[in-house]
Specification:
The chain is α/β, with parallel strands linked by helices and 188 residues long. It is built from 6 helices and 7 strands. Strand 6 and strand 7 form a beta hairpin. Helix 3 crosses helix 5 and helix 4 runs parallel beside helix 5. It is globular and about 45 Å long. The model has no long low-confidence stretch (mean pLDDT 89).
């Protein structure tokens, strides 16, 4: 099953996604970590996520760019948790040399598409940062637009679409074969 989870920052998406990925578990359970730390707040968030996963059986793979490359080091029959598309876009779009790659979203969509075609079970996490009424500077708006494009394309390829807000899970789309109900039993 392919699950997409979006919602506000720090609303419990990753924790919920970990539970879902664990329930999908095949022989292997992979946590695809995309965040590249740039400050102590990032370090704290990464440490919190690592603590939450402790003892769950996740093999963590750091993949800050070129998401499809994880298939070179992972067994595609495993269960995957990709956390998060938001960080992946930041890494691909904003280069360490200060340049900006405005075509990053197209590559990420292609990479996620490759990943979704090759794996059976995956949970993909993204942040819902593009819907408020605020107007930001042009670069931030480009980033928000790119994230929305990636999320829309990813949603089309997933079986289940969820929103997590303040630890409340809303189901927006689900398969009709009952797999989602058995997977989510007791979690919502």
């Amino acid at each position: 099953m392919k699950v997409f989870i979006s919602g506000g920052c720090k609303n419990g998406k990753s924790y919920y996604a970990q539970h879902l990925a664990k329930r999908q578990q095949n022989d292997k359970l992979y946590y695809i970590a995309t965040m590249s730390s740039v400050d102590s707040e990032d370090d704290q968030r990464i440490a919190r996520h690592q603590d939450e996963r402790e003892g769950w059986g996740f093999e963590t793979i750091e993949q800050a760019v070129n998401i499809e490359d994880i298939l070179n080091v992972c067994d595609s029959t495993g269960s995957f948790l990709l956390d998060s598309v938001t960080a992946l876009l930041a890494n691909e779009m904003f280069k360490s040399d200060g340049s900006v790659d405005f075509d990053a979203s197209s590559r990420i969509i292609d990479g996620i598409n490759v990943l979704l075609e090759k794996v059976e079970n995956i949970v993909i996490v993204s942040d819902y940062i593009y819907s408020d009424a605020m107007e930001y500077d042009e670069l931030t708006e480009q980033y928000r637009k790119a994230l929305a494009q990636i999320d829309r394309a990813t949603v089309k390829m997933c079986d289940v679409v969820l929103e997590v807000a303040y630890s409340t899970v809303t189901l927006h789309r689900s398969t009709e074969d009952g797999r989602w109900e058995s997977l989510s039993e007791g979690l919502r």
